[in-house]
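Now for one record.
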Amino acid sequence: MIYDKQSRKKNTISFVKQDITQADVECIVNAANNSLLGGGGVDGAIHRAAGPKLLDECITLHGCETGEAKITAGYNLKAKHIIHTVGPIYSGTEEDARLLRNCYWNSLELAKANDIHSIAFPAISTGVYGYPVEEATEVALKAISDWVKENCNYGMTILFACFHDDIVDVYNKCWTSYEESQLVRG
């Protein structure tokens, strides 16, 4: 997807199989650990693709609490910015959903505060943090949808960059279910 500044008043959400480090958006979201100093999975891939200056800047941030978000430059990425957020390690409690929701909400708020209008998210907490994909997807889509409703005139292009086709399928299925539930309530 190519970001078009003329569509700033539109809010769009899409799900694609894509390497998030290659996303053609203003900002990508890093599913980071609390140190923000790199790790495995998407975190490691983003740090490798952005280059060593990212680590230098992350050191100055002094970590990040679970559910919060911090921003850096994108360095060697197509994206001008990286928002780092720390998802919860899945324990099956209601607190997990609250913290995961905060990851998405706080990332979007930080993007808005920095006049960012296109953003790509990974499936936060679904890798080594063990959050079940469908459950995490439902939390993510509800958080994103609520944010878009509250910020309906902002204009945000939201891309979910999924690493596998089966994850894209889960997002599409959950989105269809979510939209249908909104029609029933509406």
Observations:
- The longest helix spans residues 165-185.
- The beta strands are 12-17, 27-32, 69-73, 81-86, 118-121, 157-162.
